[in-house]
Amino acid sequence: MITLRQLALATPPAGKADTSETIYQRFEREPECLLIPVVDDQHRPTGLIERNTFLLRLAKQYGRALFAARSVQIIMDTDPLVVEADTAPGDFASLALDGHSGQLLKGFIVVENGRYLGVGAAVDLLRAAATERLETASQLGELTESLKASHLEAERNRHFAEAVIEHIPSLVAVRSSNSGRFLLMNRASESILGVNRETFIGHRIDEIAPSRLMDQLRNADRLISQDAGTGRHRDLAYVRPSDNDHRVLRISQTPVDMPDGESLILTVADDLTDARRAQDRIQHLAHFDLLTALPNRALFQERLEMSLRQVDLARQRGALMDVAVLAVDLDRFKSVNDTLGHNAGDAVLRLVAERMKDVLRSDELASRLGGDEFAVLLCGEDVAETAKTVANRLTSVMSTPLELGDHSVSIGASIGIALYPQDADNAEELLKRADIALYRSKSEGKGVWRRFDATMHAELADRRSLENDLRRAVSNGDFKAHFQPILDLSQGRIVGFEALMRWPHERRGMVPPNDFIPLAEELGLINPMGEWMIRAACDAASLWPQDTSVAVNISAMQFKSPGLVSCIFQALSKSGLAPNRLELEVTETVLIDDEPEVLKCLRQLREIGVSIALDDFGTGFASLSYLQRFPFDKIKIDQSFTRGLPDSRAATSIISAVTALSAKLGLITTAEGVETEAQLQAVSRLGCTQAQGYLIGKATPHPEMLLRSATAGRLAAS
Ligand code: C2E
Ligand code: CA
Ligand code: CA
User: Are residues 423 and 485 in the same domain?
Assistant: First the structure.
């Protein structure tokens, strides 16, 4: 005979199962192990961890997809079955089956004088109990061997089925088809329906209160009974009375004929709500931009493909439908984001999305493709005209300033338009061509729209190759420094040179800086290039006579780089050039943002003796006001004024006003672009202190030659 002691000790030795990892490893290592006991420090049993429960719990954490919306209960026993080792298996089995069958199925703990001994499984207990009974029976000679086996088998099956029904996470309900009364409902029914099973057991559907619940069940029953036995299921809406939540249940019904002639109705249902909701959410996340709630690139692309197919079909029928894509890009988003921070940037994007929605009709789709890139999709007859109207409305609405707390920012948008089938024959090409047109509107001054045309294509390809070449030139250090002389009018001698960058290109020849400096700024390459120029200029000037200086152009963007000041310090100390022989030329755009960092940077440099010149004076908007913001040492009057000399009255009066003011402020004034003797005489007469231009000399790689040549002497004499 098998005793409880043997059962308990036959199971693997009980360890102190503390972490889920060791529990998991143990279940994995021992596929037969159904239970792991939990004991306290004194080896007293405190609970059981059941294999399936534990794995379900893990599944709940990690395998949502696996279990969909089924609520997997955590069944860590608070009140385990405990039995003294010397109890007879048969006695314990009938005791446990009588009222504790659910617990028994999970196993039991065997103790000896109250101290933990081991655990046993229900199946083994039942087998032991049956054997015990059969042994007694066979002693009496009442049963045959086969009867023993079938009896045991039936017992096992019944308990197994009971356990499965009770623990399965689906609703299981059984009714008698004659009386219509519920005979069985499992645990999951209660949570799925939000009603205690007592409400059902022994009752018919039309006896169930409250009536709202009854109505729902009656309707559901009417619908699903139509499919009974076909294996089909229906998804029905259900308002759960416990919390009034709207759920979706997948329900099926099967008639079951019992061997004793009774017929039953088996109803099985699953709650799909959470899975559906998760699916909807995933669907939404996959198709909409979180920040602006506009459709994202994926949805835009999907709709675009759909529209193209629609247009193809319409055209086959002879209807003249087109698709238009408007690529929309914000003009000054980056500077808002950089200066006011990301929160302000996010707010801008949300406001922009609102404005777009306001401008568009419901059948016109706006989308955020990413960053500050948006797109609009139009489909219908005559969209070429509609596209222009929409583009006009968008550019105008985007140019009105946005209110962001204390700030009012004007953003502006540029737009490129491309049409299907006129400009492209598939979605990808269409988007690309709208982008090309967008690029054109950006380069033509922003805040405007352009329709794609074939010439833009070649231009763009050319720009791409120039971009690649420029990147390569930066990493190879392919640039040259040329120096243009600056003449001091009172001393009559060359007092310095402006360093100008040159890019000798193997196919394009000498690329002028106006073609590559803006590109370098856009590509973020200006910092390494500018730093190279600073070093090259200081190195060159350190070999010139002590009374000659060098001027280096510094882009506004370079002031955003934290390394600028230290680069200049290093270039000076390495070359040995005295700081007062270095001049930096900046344009007023440097001061536009009014950033304290930039001013600090300029002051630091000025403190060590480097001079700062305001370049291209007169080409900006509010030049004179910038003179008050920073104590410049020099003003360089733009060559557009010099060009008008000596005849233009406007040029004459502007230059004399500037020189008068500069004299008062103690500033040097340099006239740029002096090409003729007459211009030189004029700028001198108007009070400029220095002159620069082709007449004095073009930029050259060998400025030392100019210092020695006769040119300087001749000019000085004139
Ligand atoms: P900028 O600072 O106004 O430089 C003067 C430009 O005017 C130079 O053109 C120069 O060659 C040209 N120029 C000088 N005298 C005359 C003249 O008598 N007549 C005419 N028509 N033009 C004259 P360049 O070298 O093509 O440079 C163009 C611009 O590129 C420069 O304008 C400057 O803004 C920028 N640049 C050049 N080198 C650098 C550099 O190293 N760093 C940065 N950030 N910008 C640079
Ligand atoms: Ca300059
Ligand atoms: Ca200039």
Answer: no
Instruction: Give the total residue count for the chain.
Output: 718
What's the rounded Cα separation, in Å, for the pair 391 and 387?
6
* 324: β partners: 378, 419
pLDDT of residue 8: 72
Residues whose beta carbon lies within 6 Å of some atom of ligand 1: 484, 500-501, 512-514, 517, 530, 533, 553-555, 585, 615-616, 639, 673-675, 693-694, 699
Count of Cβ atoms closer than 10 Å to residue 268 Cβ? 17
Residue 72 included in any domain: yes
In a domain, 22, yes or no: yes
Residue 269 φ then ψ, to 5°: -140, 150
DSSP string, 46-58: EEEEEHHHHHHHH
Whose alpha carbon is nearest atom 23 of ligand 1? 673
How far, in Å, are 8, 35, 118, 632 from residue 12 at the CA level?
9, 10, 8, 88
pTM exceeds 0.70, yes or no: no
Judged by DSSP in three states, 289 sits in coil
- What are the residues whose beta carbons fall under 8 Å from the beta carbon of 243, sequence distance 6 or more? 194
Q: Are 655 and 638 in contact (CB under 8 A)?
A: no
What's the domain range around 385? 288-453
Nearest CA to ligand 1 atom 27: 513
Would you say 387 and 417 are in contact if contact means Cβ atoms under 8 Å apart? yes
State which residues of the chain have pLDDT below 70.
1, 9-22, 31-32, 39-48, 52-79, 101-102, 105-106, 133-148, 592-594, 620-625, 709-718
580 and 610 in contact (C-beta within 8 Å)? yes
Whether 307 and 323 have beta carbons less than 8 Å apart is answered as yes
Q: Can you count the helices (H) and strands (E) in the chain?
A: 28, 26
Tell me the residue type at 360.
L
pLDDT (0 to 100) of residue 718: 45
Residue nearest to atom 34 of ligand 1 (CA): 553
Mutation to probe ligand 1, out of 500, 560, 616 (largest number of atoms < 8 A from CB): 500
**Number of domains making up the chain:** 4
> Which of the listed residues 510, 553, 564 should we mutate to test ligand 1's pocket, taking the one with most ligand atoms within 8 A of CB?
553
Output the pLDDT for position 714. 47
Residues 86 and 188 in one domain: no
